[in-house]
Design goal:
Elements (H helix, E strand, L loop, with lengths): L1 E2 H7 L5 H9 L3 E3 L2 E3 L5 E2 L6 E3 L2 E2 L7 E6 L28 E3 L7 E7 L2 H8 L7 E8 L4 H9 L1 E3 L2 E3 L3 E7 L3 E8 L6 H11 L14 E4 L5
Parallel strand pairs: 9-15
Antiparallel strand pairs: 1-4, 2-3, 2-5, 5-6, 7-9, 8-9, 10-14, 10-15, 11-12, 13-14
Helix pairs in contact: 1-2
Length: 221
């Protein structure tokens, strides 16, 4: 017997956290009875589970590593009708969900899976899985600015902080830095780039250059 939200996550419906929200919304039936509270356990082999009237069955778990090009979104559909990463995948993989996201202009490694448990472990801060990014910033970053990345930068009232930072290369026209993040807040690296590029540091001029990042594979600390 397994918890209902774990069953839904392992069936590839959504992450465990989102599955809990689906249960609380009263969208799940177990053996014909609506379930709207957490804590229910099911037998994957014998119980009949439906979400929004559709039967849910365990699926073979799939794991895909995709090198996302720029100018693609990670969602299945985009309100601006921009192309998505799902256009790169076979149709039979359309049910997979991305583990985290890279924004439209970013490029790099992203995982897709129907394994909700894995998604939770890779994305929730409590599991301590860090992600590395390369950020290109216009102008030359000096040591004092690099230290600010690990102390924390403020963007629209939110503190953005890298666990580690390393200057990969620098010239008078641009700098490339490697940022290691613990939380991976929405567009966190992008906002770090903007704050750094707009800061009035000595020898630091201009705004963010190409503003493209590469997510470097990091599955553990």
């Amino acid at each position: 017997m397994v918890r209902l939200q774990k069953f839904l996550a392992e069936a590839g419906l959504a992450s465990r956290r989102v599955s809990e929200e689906i249960i609380l919304a009263g969208r799940v039936e177990v053996n014909g009875a609506t379930v709207s509270q957490l804590g229910v356990r099911v037998d994957p082999l014998h119980d009949r589970v439906k979400v929004d009237g559709q039967p849910i069955r365990l699926k073979r778990k799939l794991y895909v590593a995709l090198n996302k090009p720029p100018k693609l979104v990670c969602s299945r559909k985009d309100e601006l009708n921009r192309p998505t990463i799902y256009e790169l995948l076979p149709k039979e993989w359309g049910h997979l969900h991305s583990v985290g996201r890279l924004d439209y202009s970013s490029e790099g490694l992203i995982f897709l899976t129907n394994d909700g448990e894995l998604s939770l472990h890779l994305t929730h801060p409590r599991y301590g899985i860090r992600k590395k990014y390369l950020a290109t910033i216009e102008g030359r970053l000096e040591e004092d600015m690099l230290r600010e990345f690990t102390r924390g930068l403020w963007h629209e009232g939110e503190k953005l902080k890298a666990e580690k930072v390393r200057l990969v290369s620098a010239s008078q026209s641009r700098s490339v830095v490697e940022l290691e993040l613990a939380e991976g807040k929405y567009r966190e690296v992008r906002h770090c780039e903007e704050v750094a590029a707009d800061s009035d540091w000595e020898n630091q001029t201009g705004r963010t250059a190409s503003r493209q990042m590469a997510d470097i594979d990091r599955t553990g600390d």
